[in-house]
Amino acid sequence: MRAMRIITLCGFIFVGAWQEVASCHVFPEHAEPEVGAIVTSSPTLVRIWFDGALEPAFSTLRVENESGKQVDNRDAHVDPYDARLLEVSTPQLSSGTYRVIWSAVARDGHRTEGDYTFTIK
């Protein structure tokens, strides 16, 4: 009986620890323009929504052209009304493929990073 209690307790500890680790990072839920999208006009904003609150001081977002030059307005920020939204404005962009590069820091300090492309026809 005592062995069964110990096994059960260990199981609860493992599940609790796993949930704690899993909740340490934030990951994108969706983006505008969407990942891999082909759009017909230049977006005025590039936006990524995450599955948790972001740390504004350390989360970044940039848009680069095919040559690797930053083409956004350098005003990336976490939305003050939605701590899950990271966005940056863009000037009128010409046809081509653009790379969106993001780095998101969760409120507990854990960082995730990634990138994706979209194309303007």
Short description:
By secondary structure, the chain is of the alpha+beta class. It contains 1 helix and 8 strands, in the order H-E-E-E-E-E-E-E-E. Residues 6-22 have low confidence and may be disordered.
Description of the molecule:
The chain has 121 residues and is an alpha+beta fold. It has one domain: Immunoglobulin-like (Sandwich), CATH 2.60.40. Helix content is 17%, strand content 37%. The chain contains one helix and eight strands, in the order αββββββββ. It has one helix spanning 2-22; strands at residues 28-32, 38-39, 45-50, 60-64, 77-78, 85-89, 96-105, 111-120. A four-stranded antiparallel beta sheet has the order 1-3-6-5, with no helix packed on it. Strands 2-8-7-4 form a four-stranded mixed beta sheet, with no helix packed on it. A hairpin with a 5-residue loop joins β7 (96-105) and β8 (111-120). It is elongated, with a radius of gyration of 19 Å. The chain starts with a helix and ends with a strand. Residues 6-22 have low confidence and may be disordered.
Query: Approximately how much helix is present in the residues?
Result: 10-25%
Number of helices: 1
Uncertain runs: 6-22
Within the largest sheet, what's the order of strands?
1-3-6-5
Mass-distribution shape: elongated
Number of strands: 8
Report the β-strand fraction as a percent range.
Answer: 35-45%
> Which architecture per CATH?
Sandwich
CATH top level assignment: Mainly Beta
What structural class is derived from the secondary structure elements? alpha+beta
As for the CATH topology, it is Immunoglobulin-like
Radius of gyration: 19 Å
> How many distinct domains?
1
Order of helices and strands: HEEEEEEEE
**Quick one: biggest sheet?**
4 strands, antiparallel
Note the gap between the termini: 68 Å
Residue-averaged pLDDT, rounded?
Answer: 87
